[in-house]
């Protein structure tokens, strides 16, 4: 389905600012935000309030020539500004034309860009918002994936990486950078990690975690000197962001796409399964799928280090958000234990006092 551009007045096109205070129902908020842009809503359901607030909306047939009850995902972004969201949507629109990987199709809200900004004085004021085509189905993290699922995830990771090789770096100026500074300090990455994240980490973990940052930064620095190791990555590729679509997997949630090591995407996909009994089979299937499209990226020999990096980065992120998200706060003790174990088991440290636990189980 192709999405038409909006018919906006010149002032609306230039400002991209829409007043909508969430003081009533989700439907009230959705209508206040989108109906000034030419959309006619029949329903709006809030799905999640976390990093982004997300809503499933249904549009009437009179709305921009959509079919009746056409469904979309409305995102009110947490830490990405409108320029960053525009760059994400540019990438998604490009992927729709150059790859077979099913991805959400962005809906252009303004002639000047994909994203708008919530006006008013409510809880969402000043935050960017955007609209994506809805991909029906369930994410693949609801059960235990099989080798076929891993192979398909590897295939689509490779397809996205191949498509990204020709994407100009100038079109990523506002996107996150997933280097050591971005992952472990929040510099143009996860945001408040360097303050709120490390502050919320118990002191007894600091020595090990800080050592790991130093070791991983050295690995990153060495690999970054190798041509072709870095490009536009998804940034959060795992089965929780994959939906089964016929004989393929749709990849969703490009909110973290940015500049990083190709192998970091692979580590994000495989991290939850590193200590699983079927790890060799799952890793092999994923890599076979990837290699059916292109060669494995530089740095694959350091996969374990990147898996440890992913553990540490997401734990710091969860710690930094714990004061505003109760579920992340509750998950922190388990994340800390798993990160401690991953560092001890996967990085070359003296594990005499940091012996890995028997099994880490599935990741949250």
Primary descriptors:
Phosphorylase Kinase, domain 1, disordered C terminus, 2 domains, alpha+beta, 15% strand, Aminoglycoside 3'-phosphotransferase, Chain: A, domain 2, 364 residues, three-stranded mixed β-sheet, seven-stranded mixed β-sheet
Structure description:
With 364 residues, the protein is of the alpha+beta class. It has two domains: 17-133, Phosphorylase Kinase, domain 1 (2-Layer Sandwich), CATH 3.30.200.20; 140-349, Aminoglycoside 3'-phosphotransferase, Chain: A, domain 2. The chain has helices at 10-15, 26-34, 82-98, 147-164, 180-184, 193-200, 206-224, 262-270, 279-291, 303-321, 326-346; strands at 17-19, 41-49, 53-59, 70-76, 106-107, 116-119, 128-133, 177-178, 230-233, 242-245, 248-251, 258-261. The strands form three sheets. Strands 1, 2, 3, 4, 5, 6 and 7 form a seven-stranded mixed β-sheet that branches. β2 (41-49) and β3 (53-59) form a beta hairpin. α4 runs parallel beside α9 (279-291), α6 (193-200) crosses α10 and α7 (206-224) packs across α10. The two termini are 34 Å apart.
CATH class of the largest domain: Alpha Beta
Estimated structural class: alpha+beta
Helix content: 25-40%
Number of helices: 11
Radius of gyration from the CA trace?
21 Å
Instruction: Write out the CATH superfamily name of the largest domain.
Output: Aminoglycoside phosphotransferase (APH), C-terminal lobe
Which architecture name of the largest domain does CATH use?
Alpha-Beta Complex
The proportion of residues in beta strands is: 15-25%
Uncertain spans, ≥5 residues at pLDDT below 50?
A: 1-15, 351-364
Overall outline: globular
């Amino acid at each position: 389905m192709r999405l038409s551009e909006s018919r906006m007045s010149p002032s609306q096109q230039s400002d991209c600012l829409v007043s909508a205070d969430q003081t009533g129902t989700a439907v009230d908020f959705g209508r206040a935000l989108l109906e000034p842009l030419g959309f006619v809503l029949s329903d709006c359901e809030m799905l999640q309030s976390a990093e982004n607030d997300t809503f499933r909306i249904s549009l009437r047939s009179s709305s921009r020539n959509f079919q009746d009850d056409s469904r979309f995902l409305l995102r009110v972004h947490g830490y990405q500004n409108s320029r960053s969201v525009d760059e994400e949507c540019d990438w998604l629109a490009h992927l729709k034309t150059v790859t077979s990987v099913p991805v959400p199709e962005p809906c252009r809200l303004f002639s000047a860009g994909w994203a708008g900004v919530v006006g008013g004085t409510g809880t969402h004021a000043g935050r960017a918002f955007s609209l994506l085509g809805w991909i029906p189905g369930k994410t693949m993290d609801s059960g235990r994936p099989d080798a076929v699922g891993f192979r398909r995830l590897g295939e689509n990771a490779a397809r996205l990486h191949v498509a990204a090789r020709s994407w100009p770096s100038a079109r990523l100026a506002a996107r996150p950078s997933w280097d050591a500074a971005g992952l472990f300090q929040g510099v143009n990455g996860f945001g408040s990690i360097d303050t709120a994240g490390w502050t919320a980490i118990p002191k007894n973990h600091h020595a090990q975690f800080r050592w790991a940052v130093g070791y991983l930064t050295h690995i990153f620095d060495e690999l970054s000197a190798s041509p072709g190791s870095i490009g536009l990555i998804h940034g959060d590729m795992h089965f929780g962001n994959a939906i089964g679509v016929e004989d393929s997997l749709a990849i969703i949630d490009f909110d973290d796409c940015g500049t990083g090591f190709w192998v970091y995407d692979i580590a994000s996909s495989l991290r939850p399964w590193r200590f699983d009994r079927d790890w060799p089979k799952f890793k092999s299937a994923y890599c076979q799928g990837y290699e059916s499209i292109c060669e494995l990226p530089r740095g694959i020999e350091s996969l374990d280090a990147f898996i440890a990096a992913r553990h540490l980065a997401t734990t710091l992120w969860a710690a930094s958000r714990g004061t505003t998200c109760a579920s992340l706060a509750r998950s922190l003790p388990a994340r800390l234990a798993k990160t401690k174990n991953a560092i001890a088991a996967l990085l070359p440290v003296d594990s005499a006092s940091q012996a890995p636990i028997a099994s880490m189980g599935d990741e949250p």
